[in-house]
Amino acid sequence: MMLPESGIDHIKTSDPETAMTNRFAGRAAASTALSRRRLFQSGALAAGAALGSRIPGAAALEGPPPRGLDALARDLKGRLIRPNEPGFRVAAWPNNGRWADVLPLAVAMCVDDRDVRACLAWARQERQTFAVRCGGHNYAGFSTTSGLLIDVKPMSAITFDPKTGLVTVGAGASNQDMADAFRATGLAIPSGRCPTVGISGLTLGGGWGFSATRNGLTCDALRATDAVTADGVLRRASARDDAALFWAARGGGGGNFAVHTAFTFEPHPVYDVTVFNIVWPARHQVELMLDLQDIQLRNPGLISTRSKLAPAAAGPVSRGGLRVQTLGQFFGSPDQLRAVLDRPLSRSRPIVAEINAMNYWSARDYLVTDDPGGLYDMRSSYVAGGLGGEAIEAMIGWMEKWPGGSVRQDNMGILFAAGGQVKAVKPTDTAYVHRDSDFIVEMETSWSPLDTPDTVARQQAWLTEYFAAMQRFVKPQSYVNFPSRDLPNWLNAYYGENVGKLCEVKRRYDPDNVFRFPQSIPLTAPA
Question: Which of these, 75, 85, 286, 506, has the minimum number of CB atoms within 10 Å of its CB?
Fold first, then answer.
């Protein structure tokens, strides 16, 4: 497709690898159904939208005289979905209904890199803002825009190169697409458990999953990525070509430097594992959380846990209603797992104790969730070592201060295991800087259309205070894939000592700051 008005050239860098062959899967035929919780929380579009706010997309581009949406539609091979057309509301809807009122001028369903280039050229000529979307799971709403929404979802093919053993995944593929494609191959790449999360955001932010402690982050398996940068050039970034862009693509966050169109990974063999879901009654909470952290720290590559404190029902939260739960994956037999978990299992008799051996992909299905969904706000922190008794007591105290609402608070305080093999990479070897940490701590509040604006405001104020109170127990870092628009000092929290190099990459590949949103990488680090 020629774009004579844009002045943008189509250039591919050479690469020694052969073209991807033997396509073994495409996009999943059907999406995962929304849970009752998500349906309840989402409610009517208008009700959810009332609690959102407008967000600018990437910066408007300078360029030739404007052209209209009709011209863009003619340039695209994929569909341009406009307001009032069938499918527009579904295409525009984000995972977090809090941002559902941010409606784009149109949604460009890009089927290849030429469509991406056409969108960038149009945005330049029209002087329009834009945002890039894969799965739409940016919790802070940065994959929504009042301008052009560039959706890469149609680029979801997954191909295997038998000569190199590498797998190339289209930028629009989801976790479910990858599970469907890999299931019969005996291979996998480290990925998340939410079926609708897209590979683009997952990889670019690092990529946590239950196999991370054993096999590393999603970005650790990345060997190359195809990306259209602000100048319209299609680049294949790897350790050899455009190495700085490749470095930034592994933890530097989405939407900062380019629109990625494909990712090439080195998969790992799969194996049988043991999955577990254990829930204890509402007592001995501090001791049980200490036990679970200690088990994770002593067996970092053998187990992967998601442990939390959560109330059993909706309504006011009290210590007497807070249960301890751990969910996860163990790389050994059920008997071995029971031996590892002996201390917490002996301390208190669980009310749920599911421990089952499964093949890798059946285990993945067991662990699947669409959580979070609906309307919510969250914060995240990192912990080196573990949270001590004082910190857990502080968490419980703040949970009891939750101001109330209509939804059961399932994610008030979660610890995701983030050490093990993740720590085998140095903090500066990739843009993902949090290599010295052992856990991600998530704090969340959620609501539904039943809750008044005042209730929502009180919940958000509570979350801000809760997060601030916990800072003395955690590192001053946050996971960029759990973003918050209200995070203080967000640039250093997400990227730490890698901020300076990320700004250098920005100046090299996006010197005009085309890819810009409220928490995008700046051209120069603040003094």
Answer: 85
